[in-house]
Amino acid sequence: MMTSFSSLQRVLTTIIMLGALLFSTISAPCAAKPHEGSQEGGANKQNQQQLANVTMNSSVKTLKHIEVIATGYTAGIESTGKSPGHPQYGITYSGVKVRRASVSTIAADPKVFPIGTVLFIPGYGYGVVADTGSAIKGRKIDLYFKTRKQVYKQWGKRTVVVHVIKQGKGKLTEAWLNELNEAVTTEKKIPESLLKS
Predict the structure, then answer these.
(1) How far apart are CA 116 and CA 175, in angstroms?
(2) Distance (Å, rounded) from C-alpha 40 to C-alpha 126?
(3) What pTM was estimated for this model as a whole?
(4) How far apart are CA 76 and CA 131, in angstroms?
């Protein structure tokens, strides 16, 4: 009788632990703790707020609108399985580095939004599909943030209608992304010439 009770207890404990693990994986947008030395206050906080308040320039043509579920992610182990010491830490599926900038990197299902697709996400700003994710299937996107705190405080999980600005062709380069960011930072819009390239 004691043997069957302890076996039952082990089985129940295992089920509870698996349930807790499954729930934490599904319910929370995956994110990492801030790195030592990361700035969450001052100029960085102001910059993040400015990025969130970006509005789409009226001269930019929208190819289509799509309703999606948008969550947030970081480069950390909870989101990517990689820690800061890993050689691929902060590197997206496309090979570019993650960034939260005038045009940020985002993850999407490449069957819906191919790599290189440029979107405008209300409340977040411009994003370019640079990454994929095992949980990002169909009309779901994952928006890059530097810290876990930013994911929860600034975004969480939302249903939004995104504007497709440029349909990607399945590839993205660091040089083009840098050029796009520089143009948006200085001109406050996406130049037509970069949308054609």
Answers:
(1) 12
(2) 21
(3) 0.71
(4) 14
How many other β-carbons are positioned within 10 Å of the β-carbon of residue 70? 25
Residue 163 lies in a domain: yes
Q: Which of 33, 143, 36 is nearest to 99 (CA)?
A: 143
For the beta carbon of residue 112, count every other beta carbon within 10 angstroms: 17
Q: Is residue 153 part of a domain?
A: yes
CB atoms within 10 A of CB 27: 8
Query: Tokens standing for 19?
Result: 């349930």
Per-residue pLDDT tens for 85-107?
999 999 999 999 999 999 999 99
Distance CA 192, CA 57 (A): 12
* Residue at 130 is within a domain: yes
Residue from 182, 191, 193, 195 nearest 59 by CA: 191
Query: Domain range for residue 147?
Result: 57-196
